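User: Just a sanity check before I run the rest of the batch. Below are the structure tokens for the first item. I only need the designed sequence back.
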């Protein structure tokens, strides 16, 4: 199970939102690079970076912060938020971001995702599906579309997408626990690699996700729980690595 600490950027600061609401913001620091170094010191392989200004406005106010994070750590970084064109994707990939996450445009102009996969490869393109009651939310979660989350995931698979970040908005930033059932069902129905996001609050949430790893849940993004201290990163990594060791032993 891949563990991805999250850094959400707004106006250059590290923040967390509750259920994606801009007015319900908590600032956790004004130095994203320092925060990235903190998570990197635990030995994590991936960092989940979100440009909230890009998500809300469609234009980034965090390019300098993104550059600083990339320069600060020798780890893989995925970036989402406001990436709605091939040009947006190319700009951030050229900065050294390892993979980009398309969200809103997967609904508004899905052919952009198809072209991105063709141009950059499936390993560098991820689709973010953020759902509220099974329907996909767009534009920084400010609008809920009529598009069914599972149907969108199946369409993206047809375009060559291999990986989806799935967020249950009702759980995000609330600490009410991850929606394991919905995440596992999406993985089983679509045969995509799913990264779970939203609502992780304690180690048991990660354990429950690991139990569905064989269904296709590849990783989990942890945000507020790390910042509030309800999850300690070293402990969750120990659980994830123990699971990997057991799986390797089974293969032998």
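Assistant: Here's the designed sequence for the first item:
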């Amino acid at each position: 199970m891949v563990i991805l600490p999250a850094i959400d950027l707004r106006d250059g600061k590290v923040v967390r939102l509750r259920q994606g609401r801009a007015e319900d913001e908590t600032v956790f620091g004004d130095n994203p690079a320092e925060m990235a170094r903190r998570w990197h010191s635990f030995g994590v392989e991936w960092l989940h970076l979100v440009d909230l200004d890009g998500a809300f406005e469609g234009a980034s106010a965090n390019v300098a912060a993104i550059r600083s994070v990339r320069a600060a750590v020798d780890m893989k970084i995925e970036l989402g938020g406001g990436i709605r064109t091939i040009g947006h994707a190319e700009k951030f990939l050229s900065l050294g971001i390892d993979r980009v996450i398309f969200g809103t445009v997967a609904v508004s102009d899905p052919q952009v995702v198809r072209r991105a996969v063709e141009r950059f490869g499936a390993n560098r393109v991820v689709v973010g599906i953020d759902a509220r009651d099974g329907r996909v939310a767009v534009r920084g979660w400010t609008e809920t579309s009529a598009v069914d989350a599972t149907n969108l995931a199946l369409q993206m698979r047809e375009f060559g997408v291999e990986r989806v970040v799935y967020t249950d908005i009702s759980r995000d930033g609330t600490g009410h626990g991850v929606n394991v059932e919905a995440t596992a069902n999406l993985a089983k129905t679509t045969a995509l690699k799913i990264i779970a996001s939203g609502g992780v609050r304690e180690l048991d949430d990660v354990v429950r996700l690991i139990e569905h790893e064989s269904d296709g849940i590849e990783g989990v993004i942890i945000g507020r729980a790390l910042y509030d201290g309800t999850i300690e990163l070293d402990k969750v990594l120990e659980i994830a690595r123990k699971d990997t060791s057991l799986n390797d032993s089974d293969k032998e």
